[in-house]
Amino acid sequence: MSIIVENITKYYGSYQALTNINLEIKSGELIALLGPSGSGKTSLLRIIAGLEQAENGSILFNEENYTHKHVKDRNVGFVFQHYALFRNMTIFDNIAYGLKVRPRKIRPGKKEIEQKVIELLQLVKLEGYKDRYPSQLSGGQRQRVALARALAVEPNILLLDEPFGALDAKVRKELRRWLRRLHDEFNVTSVFVTHDQEEAMDVADRVVIMNEGKIEQVGTPEEVYDHPINPFVYDFLGSVNLFKGNVQQGKLVTGNVEMNAPDSEDGVSTGYVRAHNFIIETEASGKDSIASIIDHIHTMGAIVRIEVIREDTNEPLEVELTKEHYIQLGLRKGAKVFVRPKELKVFVDYMAGI
Ligand SMILES: Nc1ncnc2c1ncn2[C@@H]1O[C@H](COP(=O)(O)OP(=O)(O)OP(=O)(O)O)[C@@H](O)[C@H]1O
């Protein structure tokens, strides 16, 4: 089922939490709403769900206007961070709940419910746990039950609000795989809220990046990472180094370094370079070589993160390289090196001088 969000505006009292949100979600897509705390992700999800009403705008499911439909008539499944399972019910009964409470006319028979629950238990690999109670499961297992419970009623749309937020990093990763697998299996249009960019980039077909109640950019993980449309998106998606300077005739001048910026307008600008988009050398090789001193070396498995201090401005830079390359170069703390951007994106500082 497709979702269209049209001109949605939401106020809490006089506070405007969402401003003119427009978004089209294709049937069967898995979409992540990603943004810092307070950017309006949960508000948007709740409006899609019908748990919250917007002041302005419409919500369409399969092009039909659902704006004023009650949550129970939208057939959406929910998984929340703290959407506790029923503590006094077994895992089996928790999953069966949504089917058992259906009005008699549309309620499946006992055998049918049983079969469905068993299938779901198999899918989330918890067959052996059906007679346990939620308190006898781990956090990750409980969220798998929550996913199975949400899917049991065959929702048109699955909405997840920080579903893995309360779990540790390793379990979160595992659950991402579950979400992706279950999503592919059921092909249900899914929207999940997260503030974890790695989670969004890893799981979603497309990522919606939100900030201060607005959408900054929508795109596939590759699009938003490789072609961020503004400084906010650049900064939000992974570690980035900033070079404040001035563009003159296709060159960004920063400190005593000149970097090629052929497509940039002249004026006060900031260059953005991701940590892995530097070349690190022991000799200068051009006007864009930034003389620096290694301040800190941090090894993280196959990747080495090096913090260097620019000699011209004393500003720190973060550079990432493979361990293999790091060993080849024989780098150590205190050594002088030259870092050069492989890929630079320049945004004009429109606010400069205002
Ligand atoms: N019921 C409410 N009453 C008043 N203000 C609210 C209410 N719900 C949310 N807000 C405010 O609206 C803004 C957006 O909140 P929302 O929960 O949608 O953001 P979020 O991006 O999901 O944040 P988080 O990641 O912290 O959950 C915040 O500033 C929040 O304080």
UniProtKB/TrEMBL annotation:
One of its GO terms (molecular function) is ABC-type sulfate transporter activity. Keywords: ATP-binding, Cell membrane, Membrane, Nucleotide-binding, Sulfate transport, Translocase, Transport. GO terms for cellular component: ATP-binding cassette (ABC) transporter complex. The keyword ATP-binding applies. Residues 3-237 form the ABC transporter domain. This is Sulfate ABC transporter. CDD domains: ABC_CysA_sulfate_importer. The keyword Transferase does not apply. It holds the Pfam family TOBE_3. It comes from the Bacteria.
